[in-house]
Amino acid sequence: MYLSTIVHFMRSVIRPPMTGNTPTAGQEALRGEALAPVEGARENRVNTEKIRNESQVRGEGEAVNRYNGAVSFFGTEDGMNKADTPTLRAFALLEHMVHADRPLTLAEIVQDFDAPKASLHRMLSALEAGGLVIREPGAKNAYAVGPRLAQLGMRIVMHSGGRRQRHAILSRLVGDLGETCNLTMLHNTEVLYLDRMEAPWPLRLDLKPGSQVPVHCSASGKLLMALLPKDERATLVRQLKLDRFTANTITDVEMLEAELDRIAYKQIGVDNEEFVAGIVCVAAPVVSAQGEALAAIAVHAPVSRTPLSRALEFVPRLQTAAQDLAKTF
């Protein structure tokens, strides 16, 4: 399940690029200054109980998020502070910012964690100096996770404990379909190849794990983009350059939006010679138990050997493999 959080880390940098001057962190930011304990165990129980009561009485998602954030920040629900270390508190803060799905002001973070403003500001300054947090342009004291966190997440996913299982699933699928298959994730405005298994044919594309391709002209990229929450999808589309690679590449925003709507409805991504002339690709989503598209599994082949109509017949087997892959996340 921790990889689901990493996926959020990688996606959370899908925001408009920074403009203007970035505020400089204080000289003490990199000293790893410990966040002072908020209060004792008794105080922690009071804080978490107060927020939990809010969620029960008001029934609002914000109160629930505050309660969950407080439990993560203080350590344990019983107030024993078993996880009460500066490193884990920093991670709890980052995780909370990721799952907020929008920039948070310092005032909001202080309210969410019920912690001293000065202590949280020092922690944010340290994280900002390390590239793990950025200031949102045009918003006073609004913070979001930074691109360095997404880069770390990418490396964790590529080398995580489930890598062998995922590679074995790809290998079986290639043996079944007789064509090259790959596993990808969304990374900023591109698709990242987590793993890839080549079919034993002389004609192939040289795309190794770690390679990245544009989202707007790849089956996996369009699929993962189509399944994003609407606001994230709109933000990502605005950032795309929509470069042309072949005669079939979609370079018009309205046409791309219409294509994404169709893909979201069918839950299948298609690349009809849009990235490489003569190559077709079909992708299916790897979906978590919570219904979130974590990754995509795809098959691609030369159109001379496997036309698109034939590649679409592989969809049921792609979906079965996607279900198996979801268990490794």
From TrEMBL:
<dbReference type="InterPro" id="IPR014757">
    <property type="entry name" value="Tscrpt_reg_IclR_C"/>
</dbReference>
<feature type="domain" description="IclR-ED">
    <location>
        <begin position="148"/>
        <end position="329"/>
    </location>
</feature>
<dbReference type="GO" id="GO:0003677">
    <property type="term" value="F:DNA binding"/>
</dbReference>
<dbReference type="InterPro" id="IPR036388">
    <property type="entry name" value="WH-like_DNA-bd_sf"/>
</dbReference>
<keyword id="KW-0805">Transcription regulation</keyword>
<dbReference type="Pfam" id="PF09339">
    <property type="entry name" value="HTH_IclR"/>
</dbReference>
<keyword id="KW-0804">Transcription</keyword>
<dbReference type="Pfam" id="PF01614">
    <property type="entry name" value="IclR_C"/>
</dbReference>
<keyword id="KW-0238">DNA-binding</keyword>
<dbReference type="InterPro" id="IPR036390">
    <property type="entry name" value="WH_DNA-bd_sf"/>
</dbReference>
<dbReference type="InterPro" id="IPR050707">
    <property type="entry name" value="HTH_MetabolicPath_Reg"/>
</dbReference>
<dbReference type="GO" id="GO:0045892">
    <property type="term" value="P:negative regulation of DNA-templated transcription"/>
</dbReference>
<dbReference type="GO" id="GO:0003700">
    <property type="term" value="F:DNA-binding transcription factor activity"/>
</dbReference>
<dbReference type="InterPro" id="IPR029016">
    <property type="entry name" value="GAF-like_dom_sf"/>
</dbReference>
<dbReference type="InterPro" id="IPR005471">
    <property type="entry name" value="Tscrpt_reg_IclR_N"/>
</dbReference>
<protein>
    <submittedName>
        <fullName>IclR family transcriptional regulator</fullName>
    </submittedName>
</protein>
<feature type="domain" description="HTH iclR-type">
    <location>
        <begin position="84"/>
        <end position="147"/>
    </location>
</feature>
